[in-house]
Design a protein that fits this description.
Blueprint (H helix, E strand, L loop, with lengths): L1 H17 L5 E2 L16 E5 L10 E6 L5 E9 L4 E14 L2 E8 L5 E8 L3 E6 L11 H11 L11 E5 L1
Antiparallel strand pairs: 1-7, 2-3, 2-9, 3-4, 4-5, 5-6, 6-7, 7-8, 8-9
Length: about 160
C-alpha cells in the first residue's frame, strides 16, 4: 500500500513539473497601452476540439481599445449545456514578441503567456511558474522578461495552438 501511494505521489509530482501552470503575477507586465489586434478577435479552438460534437472554444472580443474579453465556452455533459469562464487581457510587446496578460474576472492575479500570432492561428507559451522573483513595478518585470525570454526553460512545455473556427 505504501509503495502504491509513493508511486501515485511521484506521478503527481512529474505531472506538476512537466505540465505546470503559467506564471501568476500580482501586476501585469505593463499597463494596457497597445491597441487591440484585429487578428486576435473571433472564435478559436484547439485543433483537437474541431472533431468533437461539443467542442471547447474561445470567443475573443474587444473589451475596450486596449483590452480583450476572452470567454471560454466549455460543454458540461452532466448539465448538457455550455458553461463560461471569462478573462480580460491585454498585450505587452517586448523585443518584438507580444506577451498576453490574462486576468480572470473576479481574480487579482495575472497569468502571463508569450504569443505567436498569424491571421489563422496563435500559439500560447506559458511563462514558467518556476520563477521565484516577484515584481512590484512593470519596469523591473519587463527587464526580467527581456533578459530571459529567449531561454527555453523560461516557458513551460505545455504550449497550446488555437485555430480560427
Amino acid at each position: 500500500m505504501k509503495t502504491k501511494l509513493l508511486s501515485y505521489l511521484f506521478i503527481i509530482a512529474l505531472v506538476t513539473i512537466f505540465y505546470g501552470c503559467p506564471y501568476s503575477s500580482d501586476i501585469p507586465v505593463d499597463s494596457p497601452k497597445e491597441d487591440v489586434m484585429g487578428k486576435m478577435l473571433g472564435k478559436w479552438a484547439q485543433t483537437s476540439e474541431f472533431e468533437k460534437e461539443n467542442p471547447t472554444y474561445y470567443t475573443v472580443t474587444k473589451f475596450d481599445n486596449f483590452r480583450y474579453k476572452i470567454v471560454e465556452s466549455s460543454y458540461s455533459t452532466s448539465d448538457s449545456a455550455y458553461t463560461e469562464k471569462v478573462w480580460v487581457a491585454h498585450t505587452t510587446t517586448i523585443s518584438g514578441a507580444p506577451f498576453l496578460n490574462m486576468q480572470e474576472l473576479g481574480q487579482e492575479k495575472y497569468d502571463i503567456y508569450k504569443l505567436d500570432i498569424t491571421d489563422t492561428e496563435f500559439t500560447m507559451f506559458e511563462v514558467t511558474d518556476n520563477i521565484d522573483e516577484t515584481f512590484t513595478n512593470s519596469g523591473d518585470f519587463i527587464k526580467f522578461i527581456k533578459k530571459n525570454m529567449n531561454l527555453s526553460f523560461f516557458y513551460n512545455a505545455s504550449e497550446k495552438t488555437y485555430k480560427r473556427m
